[in-house]
Amino acid sequence: MKKRTLPHAVITLLCILLLAGQSALAGGDPPVLKVLRGAQIHADSSVMVEDSKFFDSAYSSVLIKPYTVKNKVTFRINEGANVYFRSAFTASVVLRIISTYANNTVDSLDWNFEIQYNPSSPYSATASYPFEGSYRVTVKVVSISTNVGWNVWDALSVENELTSIPAYQFSCTTDTIHTISYSSLPPTTGADELPVFWPNKITADEYDLEWTYVDSSALSAGTYGDSAHPDPTLIFDNNASRVTITGTSYNIPLIYDNKGTLFFRVRVAQLKPDGTRFEAHWSSDVSSGLGRFVYNGHQRNLNWQATTSFAEEGKRKVVVQYYDGSLRARQTVTITRAGQSSRYCLPLH
Question: pLDDT per residue over 321-332, tens digit each?
Fold first, then answer.
């Protein structure tokens, strides 16, 4: 007798599809950081950072301006520099901070930064000036000074940092993903997972990926409508699995009994700071967005039982137990997914 796989648990709650045309605040972009080090710190040297999306016309139709942008200029001791500190010292720089704002106006101010080093007492290794609202910032060195005769500048740095949190227009229709694909598997169908992927949407904070497995006999019997073009609302109505991830690819576990078809779909989700979640239509709502993969079943010549546990970001652990003809456990295989798969076998005695 062959043991069937246990149903895969749906790990995220179904949420109501919100109205189209709303806007949401997408996750912040990686900080932009430019640094002047050592000999680069001298009068008239400069360093510039900007939010490239804000000034790029290609993003004009999707950005909601103005949006949050945070800035910081820092003068610091570079603790990782390979420099011998001969004595205590004080160093200061006057920096001209030139800012470009959302309305394209430009303003500037001069700010004095001072740091100290003392091997025998606490000292101030960092001086920072945080501010907000500048989409392009140029930091220019006006003057430098120190109270010692040896070169302390090789151990110092000036940092110009910008972090933007763009807000994007959101539409349940426009932000629907139209294609979802899978990577070809080798001719030997012993693979235990199917890599699927889809196009990136700039408006997305995360993606919901959903899949379910339909036995070939149920599909051919018309249980889910026309076998060539089955109805997604029937396919995913019961016993579908879902993960919520931030990437644009995922490896779906292929631990299913008997021949059948794996159906999968994806949708964009966007989060606002107040916790509201906006969701686009499922890719299966368009004719080209329903993924399907015909599978012959996992180890059909063996008796086995599988249990799958999920965690956040699609992390999972699949435990498969194999039995002999008398249903005595002979081997356990554990497959974990946390970025990469790892497998190990535990023979049971």
Answer: 888 878 888 888
